[in-house]
């Protein structure tokens, strides 16, 4: 039997692991196309002559739209299930990629990448799958969420070098065109894995009335809700003051573009074991301590970047890529699992979606601010110092979540 009588019945462990694997692949595909913008950013600067702040606007809008649309995605997945979300998201993402191959102006990129593709990818991301996986991996929820979250880092690992090669061989328009074709071909196969996972008609009726567990309104009356939002925002700021501009920073220092893309991609690949390990140990040592360890590791990675001044400092570039990549997204499982720990129930998707607005605000601000800092100072070093500051703020906010809230009706 399921925890909630109107939700789908419990499934076999084998089926649960298949769903986890399918969610990992789906999230990887969507995130990979979105992370490819770090390469297109450098290309757009070269082709159109846009400034770093200008070309960062599309990414900032994307992060803002991602945060603002997350409550809607969470609400929809609670009521419709992930299958319908994948169909809607896949169509939007494929359409955005295909249309991007025809872009002529900055506003085209902002609308297509920042809005259309982002809405599509958000339907293929964490908020769409966490409620489902949280129901079927209760005792090892941290592990399951960490496996899903590791898809984000896995996507970063292959998207930068692969997109760099595609642009080199096909041009940036051809790269977008074939990425769109690939996404369109995957929509139905990916969605097929999630047949039968949506809520029953009785569950939808129940969710419209008085659902068990926490509601969004009840969660918002606790300090924990706002602390989680702050953690998401500080983490987004700390991460995206660096992540979007890593390749541009390395190229500016003098590293070869393809070489730098491979180094950063290999570093991002480390997030696959890094996220899974930190998420799994959070089930044993606590979410707070696990998160603080990852913040510290990321700070070391940013510190290594601050020490790079010339293209012969290959060791420092590798250290930066590895330490920063190792914990890219590693806070996600702890934060998301902590949200599920604090606010369980059939409204988890909606609650997680609202809290995720903090990620959108932080990521949007961080990615644009780094470009603005570069345009003003000619360097990313101030942005990297700000990244360290916000990572420290995130650690402090997360530590404040140690005690669970009492439900307020």
Order of helices and strands: HHHHHHHHHHHHHHHHHHH
Q: N- to C-terminal separation?
A: 27 Å
CATH class: Mainly Alpha
Instruction: Name the poorly predicted regions.
Output: 1-7, 202-211
| Structural classification | mainly alpha
Principal-axis shape: globular
Total helical elements: 19
The CATH architecture would be: Up-down Bundle
Largest sheet: none
Helix content: over 70%
Total domain count: 1
Mean residue pLDDT:
83
**Number of extended strands:** 0
Structural key phrases:
single chain, 409 residues, mainly alpha, Growth Hormone, Chain: A, 19 helices, 0% strand, globular, disordered N terminus
Write up this protein:
- The chain has 19 helices and no strands.
- With 409 residues, the chain is mainly alpha-helical.
- It has one domain: MFS general substrate transporter like domains (Growth Hormone, Chain: A), CATH 1.20.1250.
- The radius of gyration is 20 Å and the shape is globular.
- It starts with 12 loop residues before the first helix and ends in a 10-residue tail after the last helix.
What's the gist of this structure?
Helices cover 79% and strands 0% of the residues.
């Amino acid at each position: 039997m399921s925890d909630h009588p109107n939700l789908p019945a419990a499934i076999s462990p084998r089926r649960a692991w298949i769903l986890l694997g399918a969610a990992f692949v789906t999230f990887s595909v969507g995130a990979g196309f979105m992370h490819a913008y770090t390469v297109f950013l450098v290309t757009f600067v070269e082709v159109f002559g846009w400034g770093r702040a200008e070309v960062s606007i599309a990414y900032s809008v994307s992060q803002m739209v991602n945060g603002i649309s997350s409550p809607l995605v969470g609400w929809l997945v609670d009521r419709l299930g992930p299958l319908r979300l994948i169909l809607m998201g896949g169509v939007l993402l494929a359409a955005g990629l295909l249309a991007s191959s025809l872009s002529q102006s900055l506003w085209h990129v902002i609308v297509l990448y920042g809005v259309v593709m982002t809405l599509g990818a958000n339907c293929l991301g964490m908020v769409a799958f966490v409620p489902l996986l949280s129901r079927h991996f209760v005792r090892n929820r941290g592990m399951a969420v960490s496996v899903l979250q590791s898809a984000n880092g896995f996507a970063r690992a292959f998207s930068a070098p692969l997109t760099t090669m595609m642009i080199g061989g096909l041009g940036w328009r051809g790269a977008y065109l074939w990425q769109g074709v690939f996404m369109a071909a995957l929509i139905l196969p990916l969605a097929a894995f999630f047949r039968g996972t949506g809520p029953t008609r009785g569950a939808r009726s129940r969710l419209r009335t008085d659902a068990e567990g926490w509601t969004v309104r009840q969660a918002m009356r606790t300090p924990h809700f706002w602390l989680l939002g702050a953690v998401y925002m500080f983490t987004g700021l700390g991460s995206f003051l660096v992540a979007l501009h890593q390749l541009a920073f390395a190229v500016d220092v003098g590293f070869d573009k393809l070489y730098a893309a491979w180094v950063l991609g290999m570093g991002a690949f480390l997030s696959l074991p890094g996220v899974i390990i930190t998420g799994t140990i959070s089930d044993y040592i606590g979410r707070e301590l696990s998160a603080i360890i990852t913040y510290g590791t990321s700070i070391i990675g940013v510190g290594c970047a601050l020490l790079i001044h010339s293209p012969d400092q290959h060791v420092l570039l590798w250290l930066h890529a590895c330490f920063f990549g190792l914990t890219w997204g590693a806070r996600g499982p702890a934060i998301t699992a902590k949200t599920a720990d604090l606010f369980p129930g059939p409204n988890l998707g909606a609650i997680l979606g609202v809290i995720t607005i903090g990620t959108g605000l932080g990521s949007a601000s961080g990615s644009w601010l780094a470009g603005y800092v570069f345009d003003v100072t000619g360097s990313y070093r101030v942005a990297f110092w700000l990244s360290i500051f916000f990572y420290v703020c995130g650690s402090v906010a997360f530590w404040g979540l140690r005690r669970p809230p009492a439900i307020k009706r």
